[in-house]
Amino acid sequence: MTTPTAIARRSGNRLTYAVLAWTVAYGGVRLAWTVGEAPEFGPFGSDLLGFTGWRSVVLCLAAGAAAVALDRATTWRPMLAGFAWALGGALVAAAAILLPELVSLLLFARGPSFDPVAFASRVGCVTGAALLGLATARYQRRTRGDCPDCCRTVRPGQRRSAPAPWARWAAYVAVAGLVTRFAAQAVVGFDGLTQDASVIGLEIGLVLAGVLLPLALVRHWGEVWPGWVPLLAGRTIPRRLLLVPGFGLGASVVAYFGMGLTQVASGPAGEFSDLFLWVAMSAYCLLGLGLLAASSDYHLRTRSACRSCGR
Question: The pTM is what?
Answer without folding.
Answer: 0.76
